[in-house]
Amino acid sequence: MAETDLQLFRDTGMLQGMTTKQISIIAAAVDVFAENGYANSSTKEIAKRAGVAEGNIFSTFTNKRGLLHAIIDPVSQSLFPQAVENLVQGKLSTHYATLADFLNGIAWNRIDYLRQNSKVIKIFVAEVFYDEKLRQRFIRNFPISYWLRFDHQFSQLKRAGQLVQWPNAQIGSTMAGIIGEVFLGYLFFKQPLTDATIQRTIDTLVLVLTPK
Question: Is 29 left (phi over 0), alpha (psi -120 to 50) or beta?
């Protein structure tokens, strides 16, 4: 059982009102879903990992799907939007003199967040790809301020001659593609997320997005 993986939920008070047994079930489910994937996980295995009877899962969460949603719904509706808003108010509101400064500030911040919450993020990302309703709800809950601040940063870096004169949407998709490949490799294919890998990724982005 790895209740430290629930820090994301603890920080926002999501576990308040839950019993120790219920928290143990959530923690075990995070472990099992992250290790095996939702489809290949069973409530029997989760109960064993949590040290409770399987009936305790059914009485609180109804079924395996209900247990999954107890994990991913708070991420979609509150936790991830709040984390994004914190990014907006922090790193995305900072003035950056160079493209390298901007990319280093944003990338390292998100890498730390990913490392600290990798199991929950892995479960959530897998379901976003699978579940259209969840995907649409996630998009609706995503703070518009995030896109506006990125747009502002891109325009500011362009004026300073630090960024290619591409449409901002193209710049954003290029960043998402290169960084996303590293993130997904770490989450789903056990590729190491070392500091050297992160820096190479940032250096690649600087090379691609710097005006020639």
Answer: alpha
